[in-house]
């Protein structure tokens, strides 16, 4: 296994007063940065390969993506590989230092990727370069600030946010099997929900079926080919909004995932992230409006 330790050297020793600085070697600097990038890309590839055969690692990745919804798949993979229990925020050594926060002894920087400069490929198409950025999680510092606590939402409000901007109709059904809590019908563009369930069961079922509705682009949608994707989306949404995930199990990954080529599996991860992101954005429109209304009422009462 390739050794990535060189990626995490925090900083070079500062020269003593009067010492001569070594002349800047542009070629050496470029070579070092290129080696850093190649090491990080290698870490991504290695972690993807491990995730395809390790359900616990895959679940850990989904947990990271749930907590850090704005992070790319690549950076979620890198965090999973280096600091899977990270709580955020992530800041550079200098940024923490500027806030008078020190890094705990023995902690290692987390390497992530940040956008660099745009450039043109040989075929003339635009592309983005990426640079390695070394950061530390709040949990790696001596900061007295604690992670932002998870907001416990009213169950009714959570369900309202989940269905308010859905791309399909929803209908309660009293004819569904007890083994099926909800199902999306591509032909009718409707999610049928079994009546009489409690809020967590409704949320989990709707999250999965909404994922199907978002994936249905109108060209003979095949539900069976997307069940695993929908399950992962539902898991992320439940983790993100504080709904129990006890019913989910990733002890054994679907055979579909283990047989994918690495690039195909990475596309699947992007698909999961993007659909969960679309549903989250719709939900947050309702939740943020509720928060604003609550704050306005509170201000008026003062």
Describe the main β-sheet briefly: 3 strands, antiparallel
Low-confidence stretches: 9-15
SSE pattern, N- to C-terminal? HHHEHEEHEEEHHHH
How far apart are the termini?
62 Å
Beta content comes to 5-15%
Tally of DSSP helical segments: 9
What is the molecular shape? Answer: globular
Secondary structure: number of strands: 6
* Helix percentage: 40-55%
Average pLDDT number? 89
The number of domains = 2
Adjacency order of strands in the biggest sheet: 1-3-2
Q: Rg to the nearest angstrom? A: 23 Å
Sheet/helix structural class: alpha+beta
Question: What does this protein look like?
Answer:
The chain folds into two domains: 119 residues, no CATH class; 147 residues, no CATH class. Strand 2 and strand 3 form a beta hairpin. Strands 1-3-2 form a three-stranded antiparallel beta sheet. It is an alpha+beta fold and 302 residues long. It is built from nine helices and six strands, in the order H-H-H-E-H-E-E-H-E-E-E-H-H-H-H.
């Amino acid at each position: 296994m390739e050794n990535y330790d060189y990626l995490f050297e925090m900083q070079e020793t500062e020269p003593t007063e009067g010492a001569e600085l070594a002349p800047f070697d542009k070629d050496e600097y470029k070579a070092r940065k290129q080696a850093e990038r190649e090491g990080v890309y290698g870490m991504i590839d290695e972690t993807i390969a491990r995730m395809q055969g390790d359900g616990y690692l895959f679940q850990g990745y989904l947990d990271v993506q749930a907590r850090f919804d704005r992070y790319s798949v690549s950076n979620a993979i890198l965090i999973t590989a280096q600091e899977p229990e990270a709580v955020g925020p992530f800041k550079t050594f200098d940024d923490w230092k500027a806030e008078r926060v020190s890094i705990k002894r023995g902690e290692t920087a987390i390497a992530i990727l940040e956008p660099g400069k745009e450039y043109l490929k040989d075929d003339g198409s635009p592309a983005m370069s990426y640079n390695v950025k070394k950061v530390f999680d709040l949990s790696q510092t001596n900061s007295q600030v604690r992670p932002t606590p998870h907001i416990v939402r009213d169950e009714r409000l959570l369900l309202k946010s989940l269905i308010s901007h859905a791309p399909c109709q929803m209908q309660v059904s009293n004819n569904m099997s007890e083994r099926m809590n909800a199902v999306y019908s591509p032909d009718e563009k409707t999610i049928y929900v079994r009546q009489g369930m409690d809020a967590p069961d409704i949320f989990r079922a709707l999250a999965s079926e909404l994922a199907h509705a978002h994936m249905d682009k109108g060209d003979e949608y095949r539900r069976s080919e997307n069940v695993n994707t929908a399950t992962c989306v539902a898991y992320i949404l439940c983790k993100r909004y504080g709904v129990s995930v006890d019913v989910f199990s990733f002890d054994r990954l679907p055979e579909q995932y283990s047989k994918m080529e690495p690039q195909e599996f990475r596309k699947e991860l992007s698909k999961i992230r993007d659909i969960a992101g679309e549903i989250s954005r719709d939900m947050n429109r309702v939740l943020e409006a509720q928060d604003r209304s609550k704050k306005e009422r509170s201000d008026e009462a003062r």
